[in-house]
Amino acid sequence: MGYLGEIFVMAMTAIFIQNFVLARFLGLCPYLGVSKKLDSALGMGLAVIFVMTLASAITFLINKYLLIRYDLMYLQTIAFILTIAALVQFVEMVIQKNAPALYNSLGVFLPLITTNCAVLGVAILNTTAFRPDGVTPYNFLDSVLNGFFSGVGFTVVLLAMAGLRMRLEKAELPKSMQGMPIALIIAGIMALAFYGFMGFKI
């Protein structure tokens, strides 16, 4: 398998087979909170893709050239969280300046990317992940690509959830099922659907 084939496997794994929301159950807070409208879901998804990609790049360098070299691995979680917080602050300022409507629609969930365990999960898993051959650890490019594809997977399920919830707003549901109860049921059904991808051998 060539390197392009390995990238394809990495993409399919991150987006469908080991999706951070539906397979690893990380990042559920924005998944359920921002998935009421497509525009806010898309904005959140793009912000998460940007933060995951940059965080994967920066945390890989910090881990390899600072934490491992100077035997500071016990500071990994703190260092990664501080890196992610700085990136989210930057994204928040850019969105607030260039797209105030999107900034207002995202509300509290935009700064919550800082504590989004999916972003931290990608950064930490990149330090211990291996290529499809199971022997070669991720290099810098692998980590960046995995972060990008994981963000794409997060965005895909966020948009799918938003589309379903918008359709359900027009459906006649019992009062006890409206809002979060039906959203949790849909999330469970989507998780079962994505679970079927685990049977694929790429």
Report on this structure.
With 202 residues, this protein is an all-alpha fold. The chain has one domain (34-199). The chain is built from 8 helices and no strands. It has helices at 3-17, 28-33, 38-67, 76-98, 100-106, 117-126, 140-168, 180-195. It starts with a helix and ends in a 7-residue tail after the last helix. The relative contact order is 0.20. The model has no long low-confidence stretch (mean pLDDT 89).
SSE sequence, one letter per element: HHHHHHHH
Secondary-structure-based class equals mainly alpha
Tally of individual domains: 1
Radius of gyration: 18 Å
Query: What coarse outline follows from CA principal-axis ratios?
Result: globular
Question: What portion of residues is helical?
Answer: 55-70%
Strand segment tally: 0
Largest sheet: none
Low-confidence stretches: none
Helix segment count?
Answer: 8
First-to-last CA distance: 11 Å
Mean pLDDT: 89
Quick rundown:
This protein has one domain. It has helices spanning 3-17, 28-33, 38-67, 76-98, 100-106, 117-126, 140-168, 180-195. The radius of gyration is 18 Å and the shape is globular.
Task: List the SSEs and their pairings.
Layout: H1 3-17, H2 28-33, H3 38-67, H4 76-98, H5 100-106, H6 117-126, H7 140-168, H8 180-195
Helix pairs in contact: 1-7, 3-4, 3-6, 3-7, 4-5, 4-6, 6-7, 7-8
Q: Notable features of this structure?
A:
mainly alpha; 202 residues
